[in-house]
Amino acid sequence: MDKRPKTKQPAKKPALQWLIKALPWILIVCGIVGILASLMITQEKFDLAANPHYQPACDLNPIVSCGSVMQSPQANAFGFTNPYIGLIGFPIVLTIGVAMLAGAKFKRWFWVGLQIGLSLGLVFAYWLLYESVYSINALCPYCLSVDVVLTIAVWYTTLYNFRQGHLKVRASCQKAVDFASRHHLDIIVLWFLIVIAIILKHFWYYYGQHI
């Protein structure tokens, strides 16, 4: 009989346990905020279409001006008003969050599909943000709210998919995933600070005079 002491196997790293519990709530909150922002943009756009002289409530100054953004060609990028996309997409995000909270389990293909859908939405949102800053030279607070919740939803869905194995990662990249998991909040806060800094730098010609 082999009496040699057995080598203790290293414990496997648990998946991001807090995220498993938190992701449903993240998707629910992001879905609700996204729906409300999309509804507000749609209503303001209808009011503006009915009355060309209507001033949206979010027209605060020459820079923060929803009206300028809503009347731009980019506001109808696919031939219809952009908020319709949010009115379709965000209820799906909300429903998934509620279903997860109720104990629903989804297949890998579902999570990959959600990842693709959210990521495409984020790319479109940041394209609109780029156009708002550098072409339209105006910002819409409701649109910025959509950018924020989409960024958060994509970030934490991506981490969840990596940690749950829905998205495969090479062994050489595992350390990067581990680092992102440990510093998830630091990374997303830094990202938002960078975006804010870029926006302020571009519009400093206005805000620099009002400080």
Counting H and I runs of at least 4 residues, what is the number of helices? 8
Task: Output mean pLDDT.
Answer: 89
What sequence of helices (H) and strands (E) makes up the elements?
Answer: HHHHHHHH
Overall shape: it is globular
Quaternary organisation of the protein chains: single chain
* Most strands sheet: none
Helix content: 55-70%
How large is the share of residues in beta strands? under 5%
Distance between the termini: 81 Å
Structural class category: mainly alpha
Spans with pLDDT under 50 lasting ≥5 residues? 7-13
Q: What is the radius of gyration computed over CA atoms, rounded to a whole number of angstroms?
A: 21 Å
What is the number of strand segments? 0
Walk me through the structure.
The protein is mostly helical. The chain is 68% helix and 0% strand. The protein contains eight helices and no strands. Helix 4 packs antiparallel against helix 5 (141-164). The longest helix has 34 residues, at 17-50. It is globular and about 55 Å long. It starts with 16 loop residues before the first helix and ends with a helix. Mean pLDDT is 89; it is low at 7-13.
